[in-house]
Request: fold
Amino acid sequence: MSRISPKFESLRRDGRKALIPFITAGDPNPAFTVPALHAMVEAGADIIELGVPFSDPMADGPVIQRASERALAHKMSLRKVLELVREFRQKDDTTPVVLMGYLNPVESLGYRNFVEKAQAAGVDGVLTVDMPPEESSEFLPMLDEAGIDPIFLLAPNSTNERIAKMGQLGRGYLYYVSLKGVTGASHLNLDDVAHKVEEIRKLTGLPIAVGFGVKNAETAAAVAKLGDGVVVGSALVSRIEAAGDDSALALQEITGLLRSMRSSLDA
Amino acid sequence: MTNLESIETYNLPDQRGHFGPYGGVFVAETLMLPISELTEAYYRYMQDKDFLAELDYDLQHYVGRPSPIYHAERFSRELGGAQIFLKREDLNHTGAHKVNNTVGQALLAKRMGKTRIIAETGAGQHGVATATVAARLGLECVVYMGSVDVARQAPNVLRMKLLGATVVPVESGSKTLKDALNEAMRDWVTNVDNTFYIIGTVAGPHPYPAMVRDFQAVIGRESKQQMLEMTGCLPDVLAACVGGGSNAIGLFYPFIDDREVAMHGVEAAGDGIATGRHSAPLSAGRPGVLHGNRTYLMEDEDGEIIETHSISAGLDYPGVGPEHAWLKDSGRAHYVSITDDEAMQGFHALTRLEGIIPALESSHAIAYAMKLAPTLPKDKTILVNLSGRGDKDINTIAAREGITL
Reply:
């Protein structure tokens, strides 16, 4: 049973918004990831999106592309990401973890095999960027059976028909991509986001997390106000990159950013 | 689903772009709307008399179609077996088959009101063919090209720039064709409103594999008629090189229902299949999902795409069009591979015996025909798609053979 819906329910009861950090598993090295996940929870993260590195991340900007390359240079793989989640779960059995990545590593492992391993590791949701619902008819029932939430993306140009469909097929939350572009882009327009989130609300009761282009505490708070949560990825990953081999500095930088976002969100 | 006997008339893909288990639309949400708009426009205009008339006119007067078929008699005599015929796509404007598709897609872009064209390119032939039609129609053009390919295909880079295109060297991943495709997809997702993405091969999300095939099928349609006129019957064997597979599908497609015609696709074996340094997913890969479709891929045990190798930049791609994946599984087409060394032998043989300098891509098909012809009787015919000319490759050949230009 996924931890995501209960998390959103409890946030709603408290009148709070979800802070959802994204980092790429294995970046800058595999040893960094689990301590970073715990530190992010400590700093106020409600849900973790853990990136599964892929050789051809078509929907990602340069920051997350380079994170994937660093992780792959350390032989990170979907199998190893699942081991990291299992390790995280030894000390944290409450924070929802969503795997975010591309379809081919999942196909390579096999849907059934992946779902069993993900369930055993304690994964709550799966966001497969390049797998639209039209191509998911085999995968979705297996996720459902295992109590893992399929998280779908919505975009500024998603039609009402598609929004309604994702509302039916999605579980946990919907991830609204705030702009047309790749991750880490910088032209987020709050009015446009507000307008579209309002439209989405009319078509689905699922919580809405907004991401892409959220760089600082101010934008995070503004975006969170429009939806039920905010996803922050490239801003964290670029801090990890800047810290190079200095893991302590990287942890300090990402938890610093998350703390400032947390307090803006709760203000 | 891959049972050929059950199909009387070949009619794939289905409405959502599936060739059996292959093909489909595997893209991020932001691309779903532009793809459905493109699909709608493609189905509409392929039935539109005015559009088709304009396309025919351009193919005839701008591209120079029909391209001739040439009976390579001296080459055939030397090999001592089947007669080899060449479909001369190398004689098209811009020097390869790629322009058949870019002319078609650019007309579609114009009809759809798009003002900006983007493309990926490997050898640079598709980039040149795209820059060419963009110049003619006055459209802005940006071409993504892996930095490794920029270095080995310098003449084509200059050609694109002269035509007014911006060439963006791609530094990510293996810095070749697949990474250029990733970068073009990223551009498209960012500029969906005014931008038309002209994919150069029969890969990518639906409708691209079907659309590019339909624009390239002029190769096979002409070939059928020309072979009947020249020899009184259809060829016994079709041979074409396969990277993404657009020239091969263009030749094969109109022959799929002619079961007596064998179809042989030739992949790039690079240093040899056994070395792992090759670009032959149909020969040595397995099915997976990349660049918007399910097909055979070169990947490692974790599903990461691995670096490919071929002397020919145009074949240096880890995937292949989904229709080829289906044709392979169904047994309708056969796929073989040719190493860098063998392709070089084919290159030299055709150049010296017939006075035709083939592209390194096409040299793979030539080299395969050299192997096959001696095993067949003299009254059999092999039609090879000579998909492009080799002028662009002289730097690569000079470097490989230690010649200073």
